[in-house]
Amino acid sequence: MNISVIGGDLRIIELAKLFDKNGDNVCLLGFENLEEKILENSKITKITTLNNSVKTADLVITSIPISKDGKYINSPYSNEKIVVKELFELTKNKKIITGNVTEKIQECINKNNNNEIIDILKLEELAIKNSIPTAEGAIQIAMEKSLITIHNSNCLILGFGRIGKILAKMLKGMGANVYCEARKQQDLAWIETCGYSKIDLKNLNNELEKIEFDFIFNTIPSLILDEKNLKFINKQCIIIDLASKPGGVDFEEANKLGLVTNWALALPGKVAPKTAAKYIFETIKNNFDLL
């Protein structure tokens, strides 16, 4: 296939290299600042204009997520702005793999009658696999920011979804005292069955006051650690928010209270770009008749 890769981080570059290794013809747009040695031993080419990039493409892959503001494609290796609207105007009737298609971007897609959009971040397979580098990255941040070991520390995980489950298992394996919060009774039952200490969301402020946590990891994309709960957290605790926007921490209030926080977004592409690219490649291969 002829594949056009438009914007993206090191994870997307590694994905382009996997397609190249697969025997596809790959071109890049929005990577003029990328060091040439990264593409050594590949047949990948760089294109300088959007029109040239997509006109012969069988498949277009954008940055994942596609955009931060809904206007421009994420292109950290470029000084030029690649306009989302222009991309969809030029790619009618083409297959496009992207991520995090917001309502604003969907409106742009609908306007241009492009009905072959694949939002790969909505696929459960990729979400499950991405929970592994996310959890590892969270632990890496915790270790870098703390003066204590994970072993024998008190760790609270807010939310017991994909990331929460993997993170709890890793922390337990490192010897941490793992507490997991959930709202649903079935999740609380699983927490207890897995050997972790359970905390019901409705009792969270009482538990925060009673237990001195060393690390708190939030995975819930809604405000959980608000002013009411933050005041019970000790100043030595490190709070790591893994949730997508709007996140689960009132960072302004946490800052006023002198708490250490870190909003760790898009960790797979930051901590393990090669593995994250492999997960995307596998997901595409397993779910779409493209390879």
Describe this protein's structure:
The protein contains 12 helices and 12 strands. It is an alpha/beta fold and 291 residues long. The strands form 2 sheets. Strands 3-2-1-4-5-6 form a 6-stranded parallel beta sheet. Strand 11, helix 10 and strand 12 (260-263) form a beta-alpha-beta unit. Helix 1 (10-21) crosses helix 12 and helix 5 packs antiparallel against helix 12 (273-287). The model has no long low-confidence stretch (mean pLDDT 94).
Taking all Cα atoms into account, the compactness measure Rg is 21 Å
**Biggest beta sheet attributes:** 6 strands, parallel
Pick out the low-confidence regions: none
Structural class: alpha/beta
Order of strands, main sheet, comes to 3-2-1-4-5-6
Give the CA-CA distance, first to last residue: 8 Å
Q: What's the average pLDDT?
A: 94
User: Can you count the helices?
Assistant: 12
How much helical structure, as a percent, in the residues? Answer: 25-40%
Approximate strand percentage: 15-25%
Please count the beta strands (DSSP E, at least 2 residues each).
Answer: 12
